[in-house]
């Protein structure tokens, strides 16, 4: 009895500490799971892109010879061709993860560039034009020019990105504001515009202050070493039609006066972080001023997203940090509802779409 009693006392003591240990383990496990779930949530790419899936169009099945086609890689990389002359906006194919972008150093990914050009069917290009000198536009452009024999047309900062990777001076051409340049039957005019203003003062300072790249930029370098340079809107006249590429969601008041366009490629990155007034003015200064009948949103997929397969929205932590939630999509849907005569389309990845059919 006595022995059994002592055993019972001992057992219940052990039972209490065993229960405590199990409770502690359960709590620790719960905490680990919660942290893992938070990480999956924050670094997840499941937040949908800010465009209506109903706007997506497939690749053109038949391309009448002589038509102007467009191919979209993602962000604002676009390839235009009329069958005689092909040229590219940006030509950005490298992709980096969040850690590399924020802390590491980056350099053009040559394999990605080779694959990107191949997926676009781009072997010879007349010209490559980055909309500004940030890495997600201009970092690969000189290599694209080198591989396709193209001229690189842009700001002095873009020229210094090209010099940093040894593109010959004969392939570098400085843009002159509002001066049209002919490439085949495309008459291309670069118009100085503005980058959209990051609402966070620290990010704004880091990304937009001291905009010039003053000397040849030799990679690898930090992502923010690709300074802004001069941001451009690209206006294109062709016998088949006119269009405008506005890469970043910025504007100069009345800057596009006199530049009519049938189609606007509308950069919408970061538009949701701006005030409602800003969005309205941006819309008026681009879509309304040019009198466009068709809007093709660009720069809406994640910079950290994959370069193949379906486009993804921004990582959730980036969306939470920037405050760019549903506002962009709500705004565009409201514009689509207000302007039933306007056609909204989003392009497939890589495959050609007829922009203006041959007449
Ligand atoms: Zn930018």
At a glance:
This protein is an alpha/beta fold and 359 residues long. It has helices at residues 2-42, 98-102, 110-119, 135-138, 141-148, 156-164, 201-208, 276-290, 316-322, 327-338, and strands at 68-74, 77-81, 86-89, 105-106, 127-129, 151-154, 172-174, 181-183, 186-192, 221-222, 232-238, 241-246, 263-267, 294-298, 343-344, 353-356.
Spatial order of strands in the largest sheet: 7-6-5-3-2-1-16
Shape: globular
The structural domain count equals 2
Total helices: the number is 10
- Beta strand %: 15-25%
Rg over alpha carbons: 26 Å
**SSE order in H/E notation?**
HEEEHEHEHHEHEEEHEEEEHEHHEE
CATH evolutionary superfamily of the largest domain = Ribonuclease Z/Hydroxyacylglutathione hydrolase-like
CATH hierarchy: architecture of the largest domain:
4-Layer Sandwich
- Structural class by secondary-structure content: alpha/beta
Described by strand count, sense and barrel closure, the largest sheet is: 7 strands, mixed
User: Regarding CATH, which class of the largest domain?
Assistant: Alpha Beta
Which ions, cofactors or small ligands are bound in this entry?
zinc ion
- Flag low-confidence runs: 1-9
> Whole-number average pLDDT?
91
Ends distance: 106 Å
